[in-house]
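Subject: design request, 236 residues
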């Protein structure tokens, strides 16, 4: 009888140890599964963060390339002196011919501003889409375009500039969307008298810049000759 009691006690202890081991095993399994889930969530967050950083880096790189490559070059500047004889007057109308820098993306001239200074007077000009002259087929009289009248004092547009199309092989330049592309050349039309209240006289200087939304500005540094002998005057 005592023998049977001993066997029962041994069996009870054995089953108790098995239950403890089972509970321990289940607990470890739960912890293991939880660790896997945490690792999976962390990996997903890390991948998402890397994706965001990569997108931002790409956008920053693209913007940097645009800032470096975007720009326009001033090719020539011509003034018009309507006085007779020219020596008695001054330059009233000014046209600044520009083209995009090599490798520059397209430039919307409607988003361009031009800062000009004569002496202590500084003006900021913006494009007026009613002042657009398409002379890409050629002209013998730059200052004969009717659009110059829209820049006169009578029209009250002292802070406006117009666009004179000299070359547009891609047909991208329109009054509403004056998009300057490679191989295009335009003249920026300015009425000096209307903007500054007086003409640019002999030996006078105009300083300023053409500012793009993205990219390098084109510096304007114009000095008039000390003697006006013709109506049309090339400036440096």
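Subject: RE: design request

Done. Sequence follows.
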């Amino acid at each position: 009888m005592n023998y049977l009691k001993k066997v029962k006690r041994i069996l009870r202890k054995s089953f108790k140890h098995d239950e403890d081991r089972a509970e321990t095993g289940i607990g470890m399994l739960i912890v293991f599964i939880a660790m896997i889930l945490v690792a999976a969530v962390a990996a997903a967050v890390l991948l998402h963060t890397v994706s965001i950083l990569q997108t931002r880096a790409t956008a920053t790189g693209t913007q940097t390339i645009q800032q470096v490559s975007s720009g326009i070059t001033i090719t020539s500047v011509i003034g018009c002196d309507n006085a007779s004889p020219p020596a008695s007057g001054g330059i009233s109308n000014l046209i600044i011919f520009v083209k995009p820098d090599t490798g520059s993306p397209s430039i919307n001239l409607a988003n361009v501003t031009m800062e000009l200074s004569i002496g202590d007077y500084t003006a900021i000009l913006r494009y007026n889409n009613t002042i657009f002259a398409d002379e890409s087929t050629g002209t013998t009289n730059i200052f004969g375009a009717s659009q110059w009248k829209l820049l006169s004092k009578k029209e009250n547009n002292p802070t406006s500039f117009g666009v004179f199309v000299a070359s547009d092989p891609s047909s991208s330049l329109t009054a509403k969307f004056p998009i300057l592309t490679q191989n295009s050349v335009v003249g920026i039309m300015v009425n000096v008298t209307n903007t500054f209240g007086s003409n640019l006289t002999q030996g006078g200087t105009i300083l300023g810049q053409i500012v793009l939304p993205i990219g390098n500005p084109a510096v304007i540094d114009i000095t008039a000759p000390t003697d006006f002998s013709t109506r049309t005057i090339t400036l440096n």
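The first helix runs from residue 2 to 69.
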